[in-house]
Amino acid sequence: MKPYPTVTLIVSTYNWPQALDVCLKSIAHQKILPTEVVVADDGSKQDTTDLINKVREGFPCPLIHVWHEDTGFRLAAIRNKAIAKATGDYIIQIDGDIVLEKHFVQDHLDFSRKGCFVSGSRVKMDDDLSATVLSGKKTDISIFTKGIINHLNGLRVSFLRNYYRFRYRTDDPYYVKGCNMAFWREDLIAVNGYNEDMTGWGREDSEVAARLINLGDRRQFIKFGAVEYHIEHPFSSREREPVNLAILEDAIANKVVRCKNGLDKYMESDN
């Protein structure tokens, strides 16, 4: 078995401590634990801080809380701040409304390859199952659980995982799922992290993927592994998506590698 890099698992959250609690419990039960967990908190209220402080006491690895003031949807900025705090050589990124299958971290580490970043997919839960999970009445989820919508995304099959790693959605190279991604930290530093000109929902993950590809990285897609279950919730506002899409298209057309408004400001402040 190849040696694994140190890994930081970044969990983004905003004002949903019930979902974050379930997510953190699934992290604590991983077959291979991350080196550390960083919660990237986009301005949640005190109840999220209270939850993290409570969970931290018995958590099986360091649990770090990175918070900034709520001035609107600033996912790119809070992820950059979390990346700046990360000490792992490899970064796995999820959202706080996700329940992880117990091999999730292991599958990502098995897929880690220099010169590559990774995107995965997610399994959707319907409203009833989501409510049951949030209530704490059910924590052991599988593709056979009533309320699972897209069962195929929940399969773990190693030979299919390897077959599709460079073959899945090759017609759409910038297609990624930000709730299931992994990167080498040095590559994120090279492209200056997420572009903070992108606020509101949409396209920030594809835009950083585009710049990583412009850097020379290849996208791997992890199908049939790194399984996660998504807790259903209402959509965020799509008001800013056209603006963000224009930034993405510019990065592709002009082969932009390093954004101007990104990670470096937080790296410098830590020195």
Plain-language structure description:
The structure is a single chain. With 271 residues, the protein is α/β, with parallel strands linked by helices. It has a single domain (7-270), classed as Spore Coat Polysaccharide Biosynthesis Protein SpsA, Chain A. Helix content is 35%, strand content 17%. The protein contains 10 helices and 10 strands. It has helices spanning 17-28, 46-56, 75-85, 104-111, 127-134, 158-164, 185-190, 204-215, 241-253, 264-270; strands spanning 7-13, 36-41, 63-67, 90-95, 98-100, 116-120, 123-124, 180-184, 218-222, 228-230. The strands form 2 sheets. A 7-stranded mixed sheet has the order 3-2-1-4-8-6-9, with helices on both faces. Strands 5-10-7 form a 3-stranded mixed sheet. Helix 1 runs parallel beside helix 2 (46-56). The protein starts with 6 loop residues before the first strand and ends with a helix. The relative contact order is 0.18. The model has no long low-confidence stretch (mean pLDDT 95).
The sequence of SSEs as H and E is EHEHEHEEHEEHHEHHEEHH
> For this structure, what is the CATH class?
Alpha Beta
CATH superfamily: Spore Coat Polysaccharide Biosynthesis Protein SpsA, Chain A
**How many separate helices?**
10
Major β-sheet strand ordering:
3-2-1-4-8-6-9
Total domains, how many?
1
Q: Estimate the global geometry from the Cα principal axes.
A: globular
Q: Strand percentage, roughly?
A: 15-25%
Helix and strand composition category: alpha/beta
> In CATH terms, what is the architecture?
Alpha-Beta Complex
Question: What's the CATH topology name?
Answer: Spore Coat Polysaccharide Biosynthesis Protein SpsA, Chain A
Roughly how many Å apart are the termini?
36 Å
Radius of gyration from CA coordinates: 17 Å
How many strand segments?
10
Determine the mean pLDDT.
Answer: 95
* Major sheet summary line: 7 strands, mixed
Which residue ranges are poorly predicted, with pLDDT under 50 across at least 5 consecutive positions?
Answer: none
Helix content: 25-40%
